[in-house]
Every structure is written in structure tokens, then in C-alpha cells.
Amino acid sequence: MSLKSTLFLLLFAGTASAVHASEAPTPEGLEYCTVCHGSQLKGNANIKAPRLGGLSKWYIERQLNNFKQGIRGAHTSDVTGSEMQAMTRHLTPSDISAIASWIGKTESPTPEPTIHGDIEAGKNLYQGCAACHGANGAGNQAMGAPRLSGINDWYLLTQINHFRAGIRGSDQKDVYGQQMKAAVSMVQSDPDAINLAAYISQLK
Amino acid sequence: MLNITRRQFLNYVGAAGGSSALLKTSLALGLMPDDSYSGPVHITPAAKGEQPTALILGAGVAGLATALELEKAGIHCTILEASFRPGGRNLTVRNGDKIDEMGNTQICQFDKQDNLYFNCGPARIPGHHRRLLHYCRALNVPLQIKANSSKMAYFHDDNSLDGKPKRIIEYHTDVRGLMSELLWKSADSHNFDQMMSEEDVAKLMKFSQTYGDLTENGKYIGSERAGSTTDRMLEFPTPHAPIELKAMLDSQFWYGGLLGAELYDWCEPLMEPVGGMDGVIKGFLRHLKTQPVLNAQVKKIYNRDNGVEVTYEQGGKLHTVQADYCFNNIPAYFMAGIDNNFSETYQAGLDSVKRGHLFKIAYQMSERFWERDGIYGGISYTTDPINQLWYPSHDIHAQKGILLGAYTWDAKVSGIFEKMTPQERLTAGALSAEKIHPGCSKYIENGISIPWARMNHQMGCGMRMSPEDFDKYYHLLQKPEGRHFMIGDQISHHSGWQEGALASSEQALKQFNQLVSSHTKSGAASHVA
């Protein structure tokens, strides 16, 4: 990696092109991830592939394993989940670990809001989430709760609604997913879900 | 002169002045369409001492055609292709070829024979796709007739005729007979008496009788036009019992398959390149000065003051290149994942292009069993998810053949196949094919499937915009943003067709000529020849 970084600097030092220091080439073999999740995994709403930067290694590992084992993405209404299942089917544990490490290191701009809700109403709803996910949505590994800040609001909304509909979190082996499915019972309407996602998306 | 018809006049002119006089006169009278296509856009050649450059993103049909025309004008092109192969969705697989499906890499197991190939993307060319046919001629791509319909092929619907397949000729003949009978009855009941003269009503009844092969009393009782239940060489023909009107109305065939060979893009005869559709791609590559850079995935596209800057990744390294202009063939829905400095409106337009879900299966069959059933080319239609079976019309009577075992584009139906493993798809397809050709699975030697919405670097085929988005963004996307042009079938009214891709390229190159001329006028004296 250091050799590559050096080459990289030599190649681009002094050129006018604005290549940020945080940018690194995609590890070979993982280019597939960027086809949908975008350059630097910045996310692409058109493919419904969320930004991944900022997610913790342990959370990514858990989700990749869940996809691989069919714990997540098996519901017939979870189209993108089934797409992810196909992507993880052939991954080894060391592949998963390497991918999770890389994702943790990618940097991309924090997404712009795309949905508009009642932030105050969302804030009230979020009080029920803060115990595990933290007041600022920073996440808490001890509770198994991932970081929520910096995630695309449209993706948050989809997942909240998936938990509500039992599309995600219905598998007995999905321990944390089942907790979430129970927890979202406080989201009682579609506007609730929108307000909550809108609030979370502006957490820093 | 006043007393002769236009047709008589033309015959007269033709006799006196020869065919050239006839042609000119016909054009003047507006009888023949003026030839609207006279070849690719002529690009203004670069001035002496100038070395203009262009970046072409994506080595699909639109990208390659654009590069070819620009190169002719002395513009140096760099073609960046994300995939390991050029061609985009023009993909023909043979023995050993890879289908780079996300999560399900497949290798084609067909025998190593020239006649065993599968056109995964485009597979047929109608005679009015003038742009594509121009390139086939110019690039020396040999063509052959492709039978796109066979009246001997079948229609099948689980919920119609007890699920028994019916020959298309029988269905067509019966539909025509039943409709003609209704027309005859209607005329016989004086329903048209207000509309036309008695004489014309009589003609109409005669027409319906002839058209539908009705009895003297205007009844349809089956027709030997659809064959016979006996050996009609040695015995009097005995027509099949006709389908009942209610059964015909309840069947699904008339929703689509009935018109399969009637629509303009499928009007016969159609053509295909000899040996596979990728003959078109090979033709372009033979004529291009610079070959595409493969495995080069674009990460950033920036319009700069005097050009376009693109960063791509290849072999674990980032590369940044600049050129005077950029022609972008990348599926528009990927652009939100690629860094750029486009305007919000332009990006919104790109985001409005949605993924299409075309899906196909192909089986290698140990025997061409369909030929023994009288089917030489064409398509059988079914209401099962596989939708269509295509029989090859090339290499007739060879031992083996590639049977297209599914062809669907409905997002929901294709979605069923997309979720399956490649093996599951082949099994599901075979179960449906068995309904049309009982026992045919025993001839399956291997198979391969292509879910375009799951293909690496493509993630779709047959892109679409909603009618509202079309109104709002289509013309915007046809125009350059800075020095960046979007091209590809996605920027046409004919997504999923190579002709659409070529039309988009032509359209962009016309705008390119205008842009270059405006740059020339606005200063740069060195451009003036």
C-alpha cells in the first residue's frame, strides 16, 4: 500500500488536477463495490446503493455476514437486499474483513438532504433511538448499534420502513435486526418515518 | 394532362425519361420519402497544426461510432472502457467467454464451434435501421437474413386451450377467420348501410369472406390455410378445428405475440451479422486508430474552462487525463456515483434515466429438435415468465443449435430470474420450455443466462425515463454541458437498440460541430483554416 501511495504521489504531485489526499485507489477485486456504491463509496441513489463511508468495521462485517448467510435480504420484497446477497455469496471471512476495513477508511462528502420532514417531530421520535445509537447518532458497538450520522436519508427511510414492514429483521438469527423491528413500533405512520429520517440525516 | 391520374402520369414520365426522371418527379410530387439519411455526420477537420482531443467514456456502439467519426476528422480519441471487454451491451458469447454478472460470474460452456453463439444483447437488425446498416456496409460486417418469426412456432398459455401450445399459423388464421365472421355478420345486419353504398357493403362482405376464408354464408369453420390434420400431399386437407371466439378473447396471445412480427422494428426480413452481433464491434475496432483502454473505470468527470478532465482507475491506480471534449456513454444512472461538477439540473436529468431489466437465457441443444417440428427460426410465445423461445435461423440442419430459452424485459418478471442462481434460472426456463416442446429438456447440454440489470458496469438494459422526465430532461441531455456530451441509446427514443445509440452519437456530433464552430468564431484564430 505504501508503495502504491508513493507512486500515486509521484504521479500526481504538481498536476493541476485536484486529487484529494484522502482518495485511494479501490483495492483490486473490490471494484464491483464501486460500480453501485459509487466512487469512494459515496453512494448512488439511482441504484439504491447507500454511501458506506463512516460505517464501522464491525457493523459492515455483521451485515456482509448476514447477507451471505441469508439472514438479511431474503425477504421477497427486499430487492436490493437480494442483490447484496448475490454479491456476498462467494466471500470468505478474510474477504469480508478486508472489505470492512477498506470501507471504514474510505472518505466521501457527507450526503445532502433529499427528503424534507418535520425535524422537531423527528427529534422527539429519536429520543427512543438515542439510547442505543447515541444522541448524535454516532453509534455504540457495545449495544450493536451502528453509526447513523452521515448515512443517506433516503436509505435511512427505506430501512426504517423495511423494519416496520418486517422486510428486514424478521429472521430469528438477526438478533439486532429483531431488536430494531421491535423498536420501530414507535414509528406509527409514514410521516413519522420521514420526520425521523429527516432528523437523523442532519445529525453531525 | 388533367384527365390522367398521378400514377398514369408517372408511368408516362418513366417511359419517356427513364428511372432517373421518374425518381426526380416522384420526389417533386411527394410520393417517395425524401432520403433523410445520407451517412454519418461530417466532422469539420482539425486545422493544420491543431491536435484536438476527445475522451470517449464507454466502448459501446455509440462510443465506438463517435470515436470513428472524430478520428476521421483528425481528432485524437482516448476510449475508456470500465469492463474487461469492449462492446457494451453488444455482447456475443461463445465457448469460454465470460458473462460478468455481479456476484455470479458465468463462463459459456457451449462447444467450440463457430455456429454456437448467443447474442446476449441486440440480436436483429431491421432494414430501416439505416445508421447501423451504413456501418455494417462501411466496416465490412457481413449480414444474413434472420427469421424473426415462424408461423410454425407456437403460442402457449397455461390458462388457455388447456395449456396446449398452438401453432402461430393456426392462431393467426383463426383470429382472421373469427374477426372476418364478425365483420360479415355486421355488414349482413345492415350496420354499414348508412356509412357506405350498397355496392360497397357487398364488396366489404366479399372482402371479409376472402380475408377470413369464410363459407358462402359468412361462417368461419376452420381453414386449410392453417394446414391439415391429414397428409395434405396425399389426401384432401382437413382443417384443424378452429379456436372458439371466447377462447381466443380469453387467451393472452393477442396482447403481444400476435403482433410480434407486425411492428416496425420487427418488420421482415430482419438481419443479423454472420457469426454473431459482435461482428459490428469487431468492425469498429478494425477501423479505429486507437483501441479502447480496458478495465478503466471512470471516477470523476470535470468540465474545465478549455476541456474536460477525467479520472479513472485501472489496475489499482488512479489516472487523470484531459481532452478538449468528452463523449460519455456511461449509463446515466451511474453518474450520481461519479464525482462531477455538472449543474444540478443536468445531474437531475441524468438521475431521471432508470435501469431496464432485460433478461435472456440460452441453451446449447444436442439436437435441433425444432427443425423436425417444422420450425426454422422465429419465435414461440408463452405467458410463462420466459416469455419467448427463439430458434436460430442460421446453420440450418447443423447437429447442434443454441435455443434462446427466455427473453423478458418486464422488471417484475426479470426480477424473478435476477434473484435466482444461474443454475436455478436454467431449470426454471427448462420447465417452461417443456410446456411448448414436451421432452425438450433432454437435449439441453448446458446453458447461460444474462440478467442485464445485474451486469457489471451496466446494471441495466433498455433504460427508460418517465413521460414527464422525458418532457423535462430529454432535450437537455441531448445538449452538451460545457464540453461534455451524453450519448448512448439512453439519449434516444429507442433505448435497447443499436440504432438508438447511433442516432444519439449522430445527434451529439451535430452539436459538436456547432460548438466547435462557436469556439472558432469566439476568438481562437488558429482554428481558422
TrEMBL record, chain B:
Which GO-annotated molecular functions does the record name? L-amino-acid oxidase activity; tryptophan 2-monooxygenase activity
> Which UniProt keywords are present, listed alphabetically?
Auxin biosynthesis, Oxidoreductase
Catalytic activity, as annotated: L-tryptophan + O2 = indole-3-acetamide + CO2 + H2O
E.C. number: 1.13.12.3
InterPro entries found in the cross-reference section: Amino_oxidase, FAD/NAD-bd_sf, Flavin_monoamine_oxidase, TAT_signal
Q: Which residues form the Amine oxidase domain?
A: 61-507
Annotated GO biological processes are: amino acid catabolic process; auxin biosynthetic process
Give TM segment ranges: none
Superkingdom of origin: Bacteria
This protein's pathway: Plant hormone metabolism; auxin biosynthesis
Q: Which family does it belong to?
A: Belongs to the tryptophan 2-monooxygenase family.
This protein's name = Tryptophan 2-monooxygenase
Q: Which organism is it from?
A: Paraglaciecola chathamensis S18K6
The uppermost taxa in this organism's lineage are: Bacteria, Pseudomonadati, Pseudomonadota, Gammaproteobacteria, Alteromonadales
